[in-house]
From TrEMBL:
Keywords: Membrane, Transmembrane, Transmembrane helix. InterPro entries: DUF4126. The keyword Transmembrane applies. This is DUF4126 domain-containing protein. It holds the Pfam family DUF4126. It comes from Sphingomonas lacunae. Signal peptide: none annotated. Residues 7-179 form the DUF4126 domain. The chain crosses the membrane at residues 19-39, 48-68, 159-183. Coiled coil: none annotated. The keyword Membrane applies.
Length: 203
C-alpha cells in the first residue's frame, strides 16, 4: 500500500470504530495476523491487536454489541458507556496502521483517529436516541442491521480499496447526519400532532 492508501485505511477504520468498535478491532487484528496490514516497526507494541487473546475478547465484545445494539434504549446505554472507549479505540487503530515516524506525528495521528471515531460515535448515538423515541420496535432493529451490513462492507472494502472505503465512510457520516436531522423533524411533527389531539380532546 502507498502512504496515501495507508492513511485512507486508518481513517476508514477510525470512523468505523465509532459504529462498531469491537468488530473493527477484530478485523484489524485478523488483518495484521495474516499480513494484510503491515505493522510499523516503531509501533511494534501494537501487535497486541493481533494477539489471539485480544481477538477473543474483541469477538466477545462484538457479539455483545451485536445484540445490545438491537434493543431499544439498551443501545443508548451501551453507546453512553462507550463514549470514551470508542474514540480511544479509533485513536489506537490509527496508530496501529499508520507509521507516523516522529513523535509529533504520532500525537497528530492519535488525535485525528480519536476525533474521527468520536464524530461517528456521536452521530450514531444521536441517531439511535432519536430512533428509540419511535413507538414501534422494528425501526431500531432495521437501523442496527443496516449499520452491521454497512460497517462490514466498508471494512472489507478498506482492505482491498482503501481510498474508495474512506470516501464511503465519510459519506456514511454525512448521510447519518442528514438522516438524524430528518428523523428529528418527523418525530417533532408526530409528537406535535399527538399533543394537539390531546388538547383538542381535553377541550
Amino acid at each position: 500500500m502507498s502512504a496515501v492508501e495507508i492513511i485512507a485505511l486508518a481513517a476508514s477504520f477510525s470512523l468505523l470504530s465509532g459504529w462498531r468498535l469491537y468488530f473493527t478491532l477484530l478485523v484489524t487484528g485478523l488483518a495484521m495476523h495474516f499480513g494484510l496490514i503491515a505493522l510499523p516497526e516503531k509501533l511494534a507494541m501494537l501487535d497486541v491487536l493481533a494477539n489471539p487473546w485480544v481477538m477473543v475478547v474483541a469477538t466477545l465484545g462484538f457479539i455483545a454489541e451485536l445484540f445490545a445494539d438491537k434493543i431499544a434504549w439498551i443501545d443508548s446505554i451501551w453507546d453512553g458507556l462507550h463514549t470514551a472507549i470508542r474514540p480511544l479505540g479509533g485513536a489506537l487503530l490509527a496508530l496501529a496502521i499508520v507509521d507516523p515516524g516522529q513523535a509529533e506525528w504520532q500525537v497528530i495521528t492519535f488525535l485525528l483517529g480519536g476525533g474521527a471515531a468520536l464524530l461517528s460515535h456521536g452521530v450514531k448515538a444521536s441517531t439511535r436516541a432519536v430512533v428509540n423515541t419511535s413507538p414501534e420496535p422494528f425501526s431500531n432493529v432495521a437501523v442496527s442491521a443496516g449499520e452491521d451490513v454497512a460497517v462490514a462492507g466498508v471494512a472489507g472494502l478498506a482492505l482491498a480499496f482503501p481510498m474508495a472505503a474512506m470516501v464511503i465512510a465519510v459519506a456514511m457520516v454525512i448521510a447519518s447526519i442528514i438522516c438524524l436531522a430528518a428523523l428529528r423533524r418527523v418525530l417533532r411533527r408526530m409528537f406535535g400532532a399527538a399533543t394537539e389531539r390531546q388538547k383538542n380532546g381535553g377541550a
